[in-house]
Design a protein that fits this description.
Layout: E1 2-4, E2 8-11, E3 14-17, E4 30-32, H1 35-41, H2 50-55, E5 64-66, H3 105-108, E6 136-139, H4 144-156, E7 161-166, H5 173-185, E8 190-194, H6 198-212, H7 220-232, E9 237-240, H8 244-252, H9 267-279, H10 289-301, H11 305-309, H12 315-324, H13 328-344, E10 349-352, H14 355-358, H15 365-376, H16 395-407, H17 416-424, H18 432-441, H19 451-461
Parallel strand pairs: 6-7, 6-9, 7-8, 9-10
Antiparallel strand pairs: 1-5, 2-3, 3-4
């Protein structure tokens, strides 16, 4: 008797794999079935005839296996198999495969992905703005990364910085105190905060909750809120400072192709885009402006069909986009700002600061912690030794819902934190042992609902 191998699921006329496969099959997670194959597979498990085995010959041993060879998804970390060289395991990433040496796909491909640093252009120094009061703008959440970025831009590089904060109802107490302290410690920075009316925000959140079981809308909704401000103030650069493991996680989640990490330096592709703009009487783009327009247009108008055809889709952004469109009054100013900035060329360039480079070669959390406490008044959360900090009280809820949806094969998105903690635990930010300890003690990888989910629903129901 044979059956589908564990983590392969029949959907329409395809077999979909929910997991992370060994190289070189890392992203070979879909198999299209012929009509005959579909009829056979839809009746499994059962014994096959010789003719049926012939029809399924390309699938036998991989997608279709004897029932006694079916793998089992662990129900806890205690049952999990861990990678020999990082903290990845087949409980927090169900369907994780290992090679003969016991290495996971993240470690198998470490050498070939070492230069995949950012999907937006990297820029570590900035000129003085000639037509704006501000040299750069950042989204400031009160978290560790945005606080360090603010410090580097304002205190080290002495730039005129516009710090933009979206006040979410789930902001942690430590983040609020960090923001208040930064306002005092960094008088050269102009801080702007905005919040959405509760009625509108709850409508957006309710739509998000219905789609994916959590209400995480950062940073997409902040982009929607503040892009008109960036355009009206003529800010030349919008700067992010994500940890390197966050950028690399997009690749392993099949959300960003390899070319996305090198697009900024591809002269031919950028030249073709500029030709199209000149022919439509719009100015050519500076590095980072294309990324800005692409990001904002996706939020304003939905996924680009070409992106879907290529097989790359960011489920998080798709769901946020659908949710914010339930309140058109939020989206209309964004659309106007996109049209205006694209026509005039006054588009803030979306760029990434390489935190490794500006930290002297390696962004070591423990090395910068005391610095931002002393210089910016940053307030550490209760779990101050965590490798993955957050400014949000429902971060664990996001982790939990992403994990359970993937675990039960309701979503093909691998939990972000699962990838990030595994990548961080290769010795960059954490040792393997520290990463494993954090997975066990601090993150939301539980099949049972966690308290933070009740905190999230309390606001929706208030």
């Amino acid at each position: 008797m044979v059956d589908l191998q564990n983590r392969w699921k029949l959907q329409a006329n395809k077999l979909i794999y929910y997991g992370l496969r060994n190289a070189p099959d890392l992203f070979h997670n879909e198999v299209c079935l012929s009509r005959r194959q579909l009829r056979i597979v839809s009746t499994l498990p059962r014994e096959l005839t010789a003719e049926e085995e012939k029809a399924l010959s390309g699938l036998l041993g991989i997608q279709i296996v004897p029932v006694d060879r079916k793998k089992r998804t662990p129900r806890s970390l205690d049952e999990a198999t861990f990678c020999r060289t990082c903290a990845a395991n087949d409980y927090m990433i169900p369907g994780l495969e290992f090679d003969a040496a016991g290495r996971c796909p993240l470690c198998q491909t470490e050498e070939e992905t070492k230069n995949l640093k950012s999907v937006v252009p990297i820029r570590n120094a900035f000129p003085r703005a000639k037509k704006s009061r501000f040299d750069v703008a950042v989204f400031y959440t009160g978290g560790k990364d945005s606080t360090y970025l603010l410090y580097v831009l304002a205190k080290v590089q002495r730039l005129h910085v516009l710090a933009l904060t979206w006040e979410i109802p789930y902001m942690s107490d430590s983040a609020r105190r960090s923001i208040a302290n930064a306002r005092t410690r960094l008088p050269e920075v102009e801080f702007v905060s905005r919040r959405i009316a509760d009625a509108d925000l709850k409508r957006v959140y309710a739509a998000l909750y219905a789609r994916r079981g959590n209400v995480c809308a950062c940073p997409s909704l902040a982009y929607v809120l503040f892009y008109p401000t960036l355009v009206s103030e003529r800010v030349p650069y919008f700067v992010v400072g994500n940890e390197p493991v966050q950028m690399l996680g997009l690749y392993y989640n099949h959300m960003a192709p390899r070319i996305a990490y090198t697009f900024a330096g591809n002269r031919l592709l950028n030249a073709l885009i500029d030709v199209g703009r000149v022919l439509t009487l719009r100015p050519p783009l500076r590095p980072g402006q294309f990324h800005t327009l692409t990001t904002m247009r996706q939020l304003a108008y939905g996924d680009n069909p070409l992106r879907r055809l290529a097989g790359y889709r960011n489920e998080l952004v798709t769901h946020v986009t659908e949710a914010i469109h339930t309140v058109p009054a939020i989206v209309d100013p964004l659309k106007r700002a996109i049209r205006s900035s694209s026509f005039t060329g006054r588009i803030p360039a979306f760029v990434q600061v390489d935190l490794d480079a500006v930290s002297g070669g390696r962004y070591d959390w423990r090395a910068v912690k005391d610095l931002i406490v002393n210089e910016c008044g940053w307030v550490a959360p209760d779990q101050s030794d965590k490798g993955l900090h957050t400014s949000c009280r429902i971060e664990k809820c996001k982790e939990h819902t992403q994990f359970t949806r993937f675990y039960h094969m309701q979503s093909d998105m691998i939990p972000f934190s699962a990838l990030e903690i595994a990548l961080a635990g290769r010795g960059r930010c954490l040792t393997r042992e520290e990463a494993v300890a954090e997975i066990r003690e601090e993150l939301g990888f539980s099949l049972d609902e966690i308290p933070e989910c009740a905190v999230m629903r309390a606001y929706l129901e208030s």
